[in-house]
Amino acid sequence: MDLCGRDHGVLIFFFVKTMFLKDRKYNLIKGIYSFIDENTLAGDNLKYKKIYDRISWAYNLSQRFFFRIKFGGEKKFREPFLSELTIRDNDKVLEVSTGTGNNFRFLNKKAVYTGVDISMKMLLQAKKHLKRWKVKATLVHCEGENLPFEDNYFDVVFHCGGINYFNDKQKAILEMIRVAKQETKLLIVDETDKLVRENYRKNPFLKGGFSDADKASVPVNLIPKEMTGIRSEIICKGMMYKLTFIKPKQYE
Ligand SMILES: C[S@@+](CC[C@H](N)C(=O)[O-])C[C@H]1O[C@@H](n2cnc3c(N)ncnc32)[C@H](O)[C@@H]1O
């Protein structure tokens, strides 16, 4: 076609299939897809976003110290729940509340990772660490209760840490189920009330966060009855719970 438009050639449209729902708008901030207008955050989501923004710079250092003292290392702490995941090469894997991306470091490097979190500062830390660990991941800034992904998209979906204090645990669980493919096993891990009482309440850096131990209960009653193989277990010396279940075939 010439520049005057006399020759009407074939118009070629490129349809780029992305993982994101078509009607969701995002801003790309330093390589991170942001679906959050921070002015709209409220309740515990706003509270914990602020706490994690504040402690993001020290998160990995303090975690490493804690895991070394209590478990003999971070790998030993994470093994009892990450071993629940079967991740094949090229699997599309989603972690809800990925924080600084620490779990990806211990998983199959040949999978395709996506990590979402409400704290942009935690995600910026993740970006830095993942580069150092040579792990490729798409990082997405959004609420766990409102995932911007297509239905039935991910081969593996898991969550480790955070859900106890989400605004709406039920909605977050339904979102994880929605974006998982049928027959996917989902994993949810978080702290027990024992960890809240014996550790968090005494930690001056958390400044009143994580003090409600009643919220730290296994959300087994929030799993839809259609899910199969629902199992829960207390792990990591009583400090964490893990909950697994399978999204059945035919579940929409
Ligand atoms: C304890 S950290 C867990 C980080 C990481 N998964 C790990 O295992 O180290 C909890 C994370 O949950 C995130 N978070 C809290 N509320 C959230 C919400 N409603 N939606 C998404 N992420 C949330 C926080 O920003 C924080 O990064």
Give a verbal description of the structure.
The N and C termini lie far apart (47 Å). Helix 3 links the parallel strand 4 and strand 5. Strands 1-2-5-4-3-6-7-9-8 form a nine-stranded mixed β-sheet, with helices on both faces. By secondary structure, it is an alpha/beta fold. It is 27% helix and 19% strand. The chain has a single domain, classed as Vaccinia Virus protein VP39 (Rossmann fold, 3-Layer(aba) Sandwich). Bound molecules: S-adenosylmethionine.
Give keywords.
single chain; 252 residues; alpha/beta; Rossmann fold; nine-stranded mixed beta sheet; 5 helices; 9 strands; 27% helix; disordered N terminus; binds S-adenosylmethionine
CATH class: Alpha Beta
Number of domains: 1
Which percent range describes the beta-strand content? 15-25%
The number of helices is 5
CATH architecture: 3-Layer(aba) Sandwich
Helix content: 25-40%
Question: Low-confidence parts lasting 5 or more residues at pLDDT below 50?
Answer: 1-14
Largest sheet: 9 strands, mixed
Q: Termini, distance in Å? A: 47 Å
- Give the tally of β-strands: 9
Mean pLDDT over the residues: 92
